[in-house]
Amino acid sequence: MADAQYDPDNIFAKILRGEIPCHRVYEDADTLAFMDVMPQGDGHTLVIPKAPSRGLLDADPAALSALIVSVQKVARAVKAAFQAEGLTLFQFNEPAGGQTVFHLHVHIIPRREGVPLKRHEGGMADNAVLAEHAARIRAALEAEP
Ligand code: AMP
């Protein structure tokens, strides 16, 4: 079976084009980070490359390099902002791998001992809460050395 193609009308492509809003936490020339609207825990953040790819396997290595650097930067800020004891990162590929939005993205979820993750795509978070969480992470990014 032929590999599925990138759909430029996927929801994250629309966010990148500014056609739909997001709670932005970080942006540079190659990447964008914003709050997941159905968080599996407080502070659940997504980091995406601006270059189009469905997932890990069809991504340009240069885009991947920029992505992982941003993931580390944002992960540090998420950990600080939520006083997390640890972090869980997910990156799903294709429906069989659990992917539901077909533009490469990395999930960053702050973790504390004994607090389980909520269900993937379990429910929409309150907009005001997401805005406050995004502001917290932006502040932590500004405080980064
Ligand atoms: P997945 O493709 O399974 O790795 O996950 C896609 C993630 O995107 C899910 O965790 C959704 O909650 C999240 N999501 C879907 N639509 C939006 C949106 N408009 N803004 C932010 N996050 C979204």
Automatic annotation (TrEMBL):
CDD domains: HINT_subgroup
Pfam families in the cross-refs: HIT
Name listed for the protein in its UniProt record: Histidine triad (HIT) family protein
PANTHER family: ADENOSINE 5'-MONOPHOSPHORAMIDASE HNT1, HIT FAMILY PROTEIN 1
InterPro entries: HINT, Histidine_triad_HIT, HIT-like, HIT-like_sf
UniProt feature coiled coil, ranges: none
GO biological-process terms attached to the record: nucleotide metabolic process
Protein's organism: Methylobacterium pseudosasicola
Lineage: Bacteria, Pseudomonadati, Pseudomonadota, Alphaproteobacteria, Hyphomicrobiales
Active-site feature positions: H105
Chain ranges for the short sequence motif Histidine triad motif as given in the UniProt record: 103-107
GO molecular function annotations of the record: catalytic activity
Annotated HIT domain residues: 11-118
